[in-house]
Structure formats: C-alpha cells, structure tokens
Amino acid sequence: MLDSDLAILYGVETGALTRAVRRNIERFPADFMFQLSVEEFEFLKCQSGISSQWGGRRTPPYAFTEQGVAMLSSVLRSSQAVQVNIEIMRTFVQLRAMTADHKALARRLNQLESKYDKQFAVVFDAIRGLMEPPSPKKRPIGFVHGTDETERE
Description:
- The chain has helices spanning 3-10, 14-23, 38-48, 66-75, 79-115, 121-131, and strands spanning 33-35, 62-64.
- By secondary structure, the chain is mainly α.
- It starts with a helix and ends in a 22-residue tail after the last helix.
- The model has no long low-confidence stretch (mean pLDDT 78).
C-alpha cells in the first residue's frame, strides 16, 4: 500500500506519516517498505493523474508490505491507527484465504481432468471459464444513434 493511501486511512497527513517512518527507519527494512523509483513514480503519475506542476506530490511515494503496515501501528500510536491496522490485517488474512481456496480448486480440477477421459473436457473448460474473473463490460465509443436508453446497452 502507498503511504498516501495509508495516511488517509490513519487520518494523518502523508508528510506526518513519512516523518514518523523516517524517525523509526530501523523498524522498516527493505522487505517492509521501499520507495518507488523515479521511473515507477512517473508511471504512477501518468496512471493516476497526480499533479506535477501546480501542487501534488513531488517525491516518489513509499510502498509498504503487509509487515510494514503492521509495523506502522507501533510508529503511529493513535487509537485510530490501531483500529485501522487491525482491519487491514484482517483484510490481508481474507485475501490469503481466497487465493489459497482458488489454488486448491485449480489443483483439484487438474487432478480430476487427468483422471477422466476427454469426454469431460468441455465440462472442465466450462468450469475453468467460471473461475476466471469477468471481463469489464465495454461501452461503445462515440455517438450512439437512438433515443431509447435500452438501445445503448
């Protein structure tokens, strides 16, 4: 997670968060936190529309891993920081559980597919299709002819 996003969650300014981290830098080794490179920062600015000329961020942000987010609660000592940290940790646990479930399902599907003959290939392909995330619905570009709203979709 980026420092600016964490600052919003913790209810502090980004500068205050980064100052607290720099005062306690020994608690944040490279696998807990790192600063984006200039190239990564430029790419991020292009993707998110961060201002570079009239305000906005001028230095590359810090990115925190799960362990770095956990360590932030010891640096930011407010009650809000503790509560936010608890919720973030719960979210990380849920994400790990979801990915583990997905991997287990894929592994079991591979076992079943190798066990049964090709007549079930269509069934396995359909199941794999259901496991993939849905693709976003794209709207047509430009003017859409018609007055009825249902014709647009």
